């Protein structure tokens, strides 16, 4: 048992991000959460790739009319690679003569940090808005360089080519496979089992990779069900990241501002406001978490069986839950004797045996009357 030290004590948060994951981990841990970091993809830089340097030389030799900057990390990586090859001054001079378009504020910040000024920035932070703006301006005959964001984006390039533009994609980094596939499989299993409270995503490719990993391990339907029903909170930093889930008819949590800080606050608020998983008992407030419970500020680690029984009792709000009903929520159990064993384990784990009361011939219920009042 440990005393609660933050609003997310007792919670387990799964994070699928590779880049900037440290910021998320530190923030959630400061709030008391346990973090399961399972990157579903990893960023593979190509700063030493001969192809990137040659592409940079071609940009300098044949200056573009427009340059689309999609990500801050990609633009910074491009400038750094050019600097390593002794081409930074020439590249920056070339870009100064081009119309620079930013996909959002982070890309805009990287442009300005390089001493350049963007001509326009997308408010929605989406590639689609960039394409719409360029189409509206008219791009027939214009030369456009698009800094790609981890994945080849033929749809973007084809959309611009279809209206007469000459388009070149520039790949600064790409998405590689998960650094630890076994860890991703474990994370998927925990989401399916509901032993994590939330899973947090910061990129659409990373979100899709989790779905793909579930399909490869035969857990796709379970994963989708766990996220769709809200058993596990599914949180995305913005609408683009949420895309793979929205396509499946889900409504993941997306903050009003598409920033990590707003994402962290939204997840914290949602988990701490989840009244369906909390109840006031004779021994203080009881809150159910993914792999634990919190009773009167004390975190109580629980195994899957005791947690499932306690969650059912909390959902009943102090009413009696029959042994057959509890048997139905116990993973792998086949007879009511397993219910009695699990209830005993639960009473031992919480350190308050009277919290779970036996109702003769009927089942069990939580003690919700004021302390000292007989049931």
From TrEMBL:
One of its GO terms (molecular function) is uroporphyrinogen-III synthase activity. Residues 276-368 form the OmpR/PhoB-type domain. Keywords: DNA-binding, Lyase. The keyword Disulfide bond does not apply. Pfam families: HEM4 (PF02602), Trans_reg_C (PF00486). The keyword Lyase applies. Residues 276-368 bind DNA. One of its GO terms (biological process) is phosphorelay signal transduction system. PROSITE patterns: OMPR_PHOB. NCBIfam families: PRK07239.1 (NF005568). This is Uroporphyrinogen-III synthase.
